[in-house]
Amino acid sequence: MTTTHNLGYPRIGARRELKFALEALWNGKSSEAELQATAAGLREQNWKQQADLSFAPVGEFSLYDQVLDMSATLGNLPERASTHEGSALDEYFRVARGRSPSDTACCSVHAGEMTKWFDTNYHYIVPEFSADTSFSLNADRILEQLAEAQSQGITAKPVIIGPVTYLWLGKAKDESDRLALLDKLLPVYSELLEKLATGGAEWVQIDEPALVTELDADWKHAFVLAYHELKTAPVKLLLTTYFGELRENLQLVCELPVAGVHLDAISAHGEIARLADWLPPHKVLSLGVINGRNIWKTDLNATLNLLEPLKDKLGERLWLAPSCSLLHVPVDLESETTLDAEVGNWLAFARQKLQELSTLAKALDEGRGAVAQDLDTNQKAIGSRRDSSRVHNPVVAKAVSAITPAHGERKSPFNTRAKLQQDRFQLPAYPTTTIGSFPQTPEIRQVRKEYRLGNLNQQDYTARIHEEIGYCVEQQEALGLDVLVHGEAERNDMVEYFGEQLEGYVFSRFGWVQSYGSRCVKPPILFGDITRPNAMTVDWIKYAQSLTDKPLKGMLTGPVTILNWSFVRDDQPRKDTCLQLALAVREEVQDLEKAGAGIIQIDEAALREGLPLRQSDWNTYLEWAIEAFRISANGVEDDTQIHTHMCYSEFNDIIGAIARMDADVITIETSRSAMELLDAFKGFEYPNDIGPGVYDIHSPNIPQTAQVTDLMEKAAQRIPAERLWVNPDCGLKTRRWEEVIPALEAMVSAAKELRAQHPQIQTSARELAAAAQ
Length: 773
Ligand code: GLN
Ligand code: ZN
Hints:
Elements: E1 3-4, H1 17-26, H2 32-49, E2 56-58, H3 66-73, H4 88-97, E3 114-116, E4 123-125, E5 128-129, H5 140-151, E6 156-161, H6 163-169, E7 171-172, H7 182-198, E8 203-207, H8 217-230, E9 236-240, H9 250-255, E10 260-264, H10 272-278, E11 284-290, H11 300-314, E12 318-322, H12 341-344, H13 350-366, H14 372-387, H15 394-401, H16 414-425, H17 442-452, H18 458-479, H19 496-499, E13 503-506, E14 513-516, E15 519-521, E16 525-531, H20 538-546, E17 553-557, H21 559-564, H22 574-594, E18 599-603, H23 618-633, E19 641-646, H24 655-660, E20 665-668, E21 689-692, H25 705-716, H26 737-757, H27 765-772
Parallel strand pairs: 1-12, 2-6, 5-7, 6-8, 8-9, 9-10, 10-11, 11-12, 17-18, 18-19, 19-20, 20-21
Antiparallel strand pairs: 3-4, 13-16, 14-15
Helix pairs in contact: 1-2, 7-8, 11-13, 15-22, 16-27, 17-18, 22-23, 25-26
The protein binds glutamine and zinc ion.
């Protein structure tokens, strides 16, 4: 029998039950016991859905984050969270969120840092280390889940994060070498493995995804040390890698003394044969042949073509699984009763992916005939997608192949454009603006909801949004901002809004994927060639502009961000999909320009997220991502000012690429790091205008004028003041008007002060530049 297993299951629940249970506890509306009961119910359901597998995962179920769970298991929660009374769960949430349900205002501590889990959209809590970190085992949680699964008749395979990846994921606060902690860490892992064996586990899945990244000699050596130390453990270890190719680490993986290796056969497809050849004959090879990161049906026949010879070669040593934890896909396609039927037939969510796995195993064991019906249905779905005219639009293919370098070029260089734009807009020095959205009040959310439900007709809806735009413009005029925005009241989400208006997208109702803690996202599904049947934003922007004499900035989401925040096609390279999106955004930009918008912002909030895991692959990505942005932005006249926005501060390593975007103005996040980011500009002379964020919109704190001037003076040490803009870090939609008004007042008055203090800067960079020509 072919062994099947799963690496992890979504824990949030098909109806986000865990989210609501967590939030009820945090809001004091329920008890720990109620939360734990919901969690146990979800685990039971999840295991039921995995009952056909040879092994179901246990211990990967988390109330907040699996890395934080590992820190708790290893006795490595930060000290600061424990110095209070309260339960262990209190302490856990305090690390996750900076406070726990039982804390009063006095007791909050700063939350653990959160960062992206490899190249996914999931965020984990970064383990904290220092030279004198020590570890001690607390295995209760995972042992309880193991016993719980067994009592439900499940053959359980505990899942833990391996010791080297655990260290790799963390940060040493004192800059000490975290690898030096390995010696102290390994005995705790040994103890944990022993306890899991005693608890009845035969196999343990030990996740080491750090093996798909570039490792220096010390890190490679750490793997050798660690697995030689753990090889005497009384359980079989399945060394689990995912999210990429092993490349130069492949041999190391083959040599580590473990009982089996899991390879992500989707992203490391080209390494399957080599691994099957090189792996010593006593080791299991688990192949992740079902994509755990995307929502398309697997082509079962094609996968069997790959697997059958491997089965002949490896026999019982061949195991089958999804490529990675199913955490990254929604739970159950069955929930989607309103989804477009044709496209729905091409999809598989977590539950359906496990069914595919069973079918594959059965076909290997009993021949394809035993699952003829399933294979037939699958083949029809695969064929219908491959041949669908909704997927392939020759007009789009033609437009993409007609792209030339000229599409990405502005007519003139920045200096020339800047002069023309200055003549047109007459902006003062230190121009003030915002990033796009204004507070999304419960009333405005309600308006959108009523419209969506059909309770509000188009005309009434438009009137209500116009009202909101009017209010927003009025407030900005009163504040004295220089470049206004319409406020984005019509947008639920910066990607969904555009996806809904583009051909080639569908939307699920319950397709939630955990982003962090109780937060979920529902990525739109990009299934086909992209076209833009109608203008998407022009009417709103025109209306907003009609209310003011100040320049009003059109507001769009860029192609790279739309791509990175969607489930995208797997039948063509991401680059090709991105170029299609770029052409659609370009049409919108040109329509805005025609409608009189002189300033247009194209947000690329997720540009950095798309960076490949290995730095050696960055250039390839940046090359096409920047090209896509340029295509979307650069088809405009010289006196049209293009802005872009990115809300993160790690710029140093990609600043050259950002400069190549050639936006006239870029607004970025800086206030939290007190302009630290501007270090990126030390070694690199960024050529165009920049607005370093001076208002941290993630915090309820309202900046004072002096703080803003101080931040701007700091910025001026790195960037010529003539090229500085004054703006918040990001959009204001999550804040309340009561906070936003005083914060923007401080911003505007700081800009006025700066102008008064530095009158020479009135001679703007643009004029200087023109004079120099
Ligand atoms: N224009 C968007 C807004 O203001 C940008 C959001 C973002 O960068 N995440 O909301
Ligand atoms: Zn932002």
